[in-house]
Specification:
- The chain has 378 residues and is mainly α.
- 74% of the residues lie in helices and 2% in strands.
- It has a two-stranded antiparallel sheet with strand order 1-2.
- A hairpin with a 5-residue loop joins strand 1 and strand 2.
- Helix 6 packs across helix 8.
- It is elongated.
- The relative contact order is 0.14.
């Protein structure tokens, strides 16, 4: 609903603007335009992501359903006595991979508890020392190479690495080779420089925050706030709907004051009073101009982070957005085709793997792939 106010049309000043006033107007205009650009970009990516979500949801859910069925079928072979240890570990790694995919897929709404329970039982049989008393893997437990479990808190490699760091640190204090001392000194210099930079950044933020709070208490900004509040005061409205809308706007205005959001107060002033806030700033003009210039830089940086505000929205936009609608449609069609192919392959698992003899070639292939991956990681 549009709220009516006693808005007046600003008249052009007969006196030429001073350089300070021109600088303020430019900074203020850039903030307004960048905020509009950010709001438009945010609205566009959300609308785009909602559309993509609706178009691929059914295919993704069918893919997850097929994966869920494949997991349960594969786990039915785990207790077969003729399976070798490496085959059990490879089978467990296979199911774990599927389980992690289902748990991280935003379109999955399946109950994975039966799979988790059977996987915990499989772990208990394969790695009895790595399973908690409840029968479930420890919270920090993950599957390492070839399905072997590792726990960060108890990983001997992590513990050994920590001990090595401590030994190196002690050696730099007591002596050691020249190269080792030079390397340790370089690392200490880097760490010192990093922490000094962090402290300087935090001090700058503190100084800016204090300056902003001081500016919020100035007479000019208070005058701006009171003028907007007088224009938006709900008691002046007889219409109930208009009163409620002004109550909402007053809440936003007070929130802007409480959070030291001066650009937001300026926006209220320009929209509902109908004048540039420049006329009320007086001796605070330079401080406010500098604030607006920093706000503009912040808004430019914020635009680059808008895609990360909502993870799923950002993922869908980055994955499917193209320069033209036709290119976007081709990307969607390709994804749907690939998803359907994956789902069909998973639905074929219970039909193709009907016995241990049919399962073992799959396990051999996955085992070889795991070995190759481990060699590439070295």
């Amino acid at each position: 609903m549009k709220v009516t106010t006693t808005k007046t049309t600003p008249r052009a000043s007969k006196t030429a603007q001073t350089p300070q006033e021109k600088r303020f107007d430019q900074a203020w205009q850039r903030v307004i335009e960048q905020q509009k650009e950010n709001d438009s970009f945010r609205e566009n990516i959300h609308a785009f992501s909602r559309d993509i979500h609706a178009r691929i949801q059914d295919g993704e859910q069918a893919y997850m359903d097929a994966m869920h069925g494949a997991c349960l079928h594969l786990l039915s072979f785990f207790n077969r006595r003729s399976l070798a240890q490496w085959q059990r570990e490879t089978l467990m790694d296979w199911v774990t991979e599927y389980l992690e995919t289902m748990q991280t897929n935003p379109f999955s709404c399946l109950d994975t508890e039966p799979i988790r329970q059977r996987l915990a039982q499989a772990m208990a049989a394969t790695f009895p020392d790595s399973v908690s008393a409840s029968g479930y893997p420890a919270d920090d437990l993950s599957f390492g190479e070839y399905g072997s479990p590792t726990a960060d808190e108890e990983d001997p490699f992590i513990e050994d690495m920590f001990q090595e760091w401590m030994a190196e640190f002690e050696e730099t204090k007591t002596g050691g080779s020249g190269e080792e001392q030079d390397e340790a000194y370089t690392n200490q210099e880097f760490a010192h420089g990093f922490f000094e930079e962090q402290r300087a950044h935090e001090q700058q933020r503190l100084d800016e925050s204090l300056a902003l709070k001081h500016l919020m208490k100035s007479s000019s900004v208070n005058k701006l706030f009171r003028k907007v509040a007088g224009t938006l005061h709900p008691d002046k409205e007889r219409d109930e709907a208009a009163r409620q809308e002004k109550n909402r706007l007053m809440g936003e205005l007070i929130q802007a004051r409480n959070t030291n959001d001066i650009p937001r107060i300026f926006a209220f002033y320009a929209e509902y009073v109908g004048q540039s806030p420049l006329q009320e700033l007086g001796k605070d003009l330079l401080s406010v101009t500098e604030l607006l210039e920093r706000q503009y830089l912040y808004l430019r940086e914020l635009k680059e982070r808008i895609l990360d505000e909502d993870p799923l929205t950002g993922i869908l936009y980055r994955r499917f957005h193209r320069k033209t609608p036709a290119a976007t449609q081709r990307a969607i069609n390709k994804h749907l085709k690939e998803t359907q192919a994956h789902a069909n392959a998973l639905r074929a698992v219970p039909q193709d793997i009907t016995s241990l003899n049919r399962l073992k070639p799959y396990l051999e292939l996955r085992y070889e792939m795991l070995i190759q991956d481990s060699l590439f990681d070295i």
